[in-house]
Amino acid sequence: MKKAVIKINPVVSRTFLVPFILITTCFALWGFANDITNPMVKAFSRILMMSNFEGSLVQFAFYGGYFIMAFPAALFIKKFTYKSGILMGLGLYATGALLFFPASLNSQFWPFLVAFFILTCGLSFLETSANPYILSMGSVETATRRLNLAQAFNPLGSLLGMFTAQQLILARLNTANATERAQMVPDQLAAVTSTDLAIVRFPYIAIALVILLMLILIAMARMPKLQEADHELHIGTTLKRLFGNKRYIEGVIAQFFYVGAQIMCWTFIIHYATMELGMDEAAAQGYNIIAMVIFAASRFISTFLLKFIKPGRLLMMLAIGGFFLTLGTIFIRGMLGLYSLVGISACMSLMFPTIYGIALEGLGEDAKIGAAGLIMAILGGSVMPPLQGAIIDLNTVYDFSAVRVSFVLPLLSFVVITIFGYRAYKVYS
């Protein structure tokens, strides 16, 4: 009697191993850009003597680029190839980073916003290309696990970005606050501002050189052509199918609120630690780094748990955890409140790739355009942080700390994600 042969689909087969490694490296590279940028809200507020709301326009420009370029990127990829989209993304990423040099020579805010915007147009191309590319590098059964594995390397780049922001930027900036800068004579203020902006630009110029090297490597590499170029773009028909797909639409909404929650929790850790606990900015950024270490470890753990727990159910469980930790951030004073805020990262680790995978499941060729909607949902990271910054600028809300009150926005976001996880598990599975 012959024994039954059990066929196990590997998460990444040998055929796709080298392309998988190259594309996964891009996940780390955009993680670096995302998380060196979050502390820039506080840095620019101090350097250019702006309010928290004005400083958070960094996030508006940064994530606005994701929103505006996602759909053109999807059309580009559909007409050409995933590899072409990735090369375009790397080119725009490097261009935006290099623009920090001329921006730093002018003590105004808007040139930096332009540089951030162009940089993230590149990130939009990268994410719109790389996420579905990774999903297609193997069997459908292992697609969500494969994307979670690739996304697990994203926080490694994020950690490097956070460490760079802490040690090479925040720790080296002039310690004078906005009030002290306002009291400086014009020549002294101009000198201090120029020096600080030069400190800000250096890491961006360095990462631009790394990105150009990566562009050359991928351009020279033989990458699998997993889709044919589609010169007849049936956009209307595709969009009609996508808008008629409830799971996809709900996934886009959930992604909007997830990205908003992620960026708010990471951007305003520094504000929470400095305004609630009196820490200096470099020390506060240390807690951001701890949050990212927890996020990275949790993503590997969550990828393992997906072998045993359905994605929708695990997403729902972690969203509930994020909800209660956010309650702790709002209502618990002192270090325990900060620990609650840091702990939210453990719950967020699974969310982006899992929402992405659930929303695109079964879309076939429509996934190329569908991916754009999920990247456009990153607009949540552009819209919601300025709202939170505006709340923080109130200082107090009915005799309650405005910093803690502001986390009601992430709290509501986790409610939306919990509902999507429940429906993915109970309705769509």
Tell me what you see in this structure.
The protein is mainly alpha-helical. The protein has a single domain, classed as Up-down Bundle (Growth Hormone, Chain: A), CATH 1.20.1250. The protein contains 22 helices and two strands. Strands 1-2 form a two-stranded antiparallel sheet. A hairpin with a 2-residue loop joins strand 1 and strand 2 (400-401). Helix 7 (110-135) packs antiparallel against helix 19, helix 9 (154-169) packs antiparallel against helix 15 and helix 16 (311-331) runs antiparallel to helix 18 (351-360). It is globular and about 65 Å long. The two termini are 36 Å apart.
Short synopsis of the structure:
The chain has 429 residues and is mostly helical. The protein is built from 22 helices and two strands. It has a single domain, classed as Growth Hormone, Chain: A, CATH 1.20.1250.20.
